[in-house]
Design goal:
- The chain is of the alpha/beta class.
- It is built from eight helices and nine strands.
- A five-stranded parallel sheet has the order 2-1-6-5-7. It has a two-stranded antiparallel sheet with strand order 3-4. It has a two-stranded antiparallel ribbon with strand order 8-9.
- Strand 1, helix 1 and strand 2 form a beta-alpha-beta unit.
- The model has no long low-confidence stretch (mean pLDDT 95).
- The structure holds the ligand Nc1cc(-c2ccc3ccn(Cc4ccc(CN5CCCCC5)cc4)c3c2)n[nH]1.
- The site of the ligand Nc1cc(-c2ccc3ccn(Cc4ccc(CN5CCCCC5)cc4)c3c2)n[nH]1 has 20 residues, from strand 5.
Length: 241
């Protein structure tokens, strides 16, 4: 997978050299290219923002640098007929979910546009954005952190990135429920003991316990996910969750 990221703060993306994404890059699974938007700004001051039409707080990112940047980046794939899927993180986007991550993990070339200020001129979004994605109902200061979040969730789904493939298939949210609690040694820590069933070796009982815990936890913390489960079950005629 090739990933291009356009930002006025390239250093904000340095975590992509570390850990899971860093290893995926070192192994050639991911090919990441950072671009400083300012290199495309057409004025001597390299300005990327201007006052919003209609008034309002803050500044808006000008269309010219984005248009030039995206035109040049898109042209990189023209020779072999490849077109990038252009992703714009934004508070007003579609919610990012595990299913969305799985969808993006199948895309060979992603381009992330990291906005700042109060956002990017709408004409750029209208013309270029294939996906406008929100990572949650809160307002960040720009798109860089959202890009890191999206890229981490997508990268861990790429074949060969996570050692134990099973740990990404039975993720939370993959079966629609939150995961059961996890434990490791020692069996007793202070006055807390690992649930005996997990040390019983009875895999059927362990499976039942984990399912029960996942249902209990989901009902407690995310009843909305249960409602979705029940609706899905109703739709395909099987019993409830
Ligand atoms: N999930 C999520 C993604 C982001 C995100 C992503 C990208 C950018 C680019 C800039 N910001 C900061 C920002 C954006 C919007 C406003 C609202 N403002 C109100 C008045 C009229 C104009 C718009 C305020 C500040 C970003 C924020 N935050 N949260």
């Amino acid at each position: 997978m090739r990933v291009d990221i356009v930002t006025i703060f390239p250093d904000y993306l340095s975590p992509l050299e570390l850990s899971l994404v860093g290893r995926a890059r070192a192994r050639g699974i991911l090919d990441v290219h950072l671009h400083d938007l300012r290199q495309w700004a057409d004025d001597v001051h390299r300005s990327v923002d201007d006052a919003p039409y209609g008034g309002g707080p803050g500044m808006v990112m000008r269309p010219q640098p984005w248009w030039a940047a995206l035109t040049e980046i898109r042209a990189l794939g023209a020779a072999d007929g490849r077109r990038p899927r252009i992703v714009v993180p934004t508070p007003v986007g579609r919610p990012f979910t595990q299913a969305y991550a799985a969808d993006l993990a199948d895309v060979p070339w992603l381009v992330f546009c990291c906005g700042r200020y109060e956002g990017i001129d709408a004409r750029v979004i209208d013309e270029w954005a294939d996906d406008e994605i929100s990572i949650g109902d809160y307002v960040l200061a720009g798109g860089e952190v959202a890009t890191l979040v999206i890229l981490e969730a997508v990268t861990r789904l790429l074949p060969g990135v996570v050692g134990n493939a099973e740990s990404v298939t039975d993720d939370s949210f993959t079966d629609g429920l939150l995961e059961a609690p996890v434990y490791t040694r020692p069996a007793v820590w202070g006055d807390r003991e690992v649930p005996a069933v997990l040390r019983s070796g009875d895999h059927a009982a362990i499976g039942r316990w984990r399912r029960a815990e996942a249902l209990r936890r989901t009902a407690q913390r995310r009843p909305d996910l249960l409602a979705r489960q029940d609706q899905a079950a109703a739709d395909d005629g099987s019993g409830g969750a």
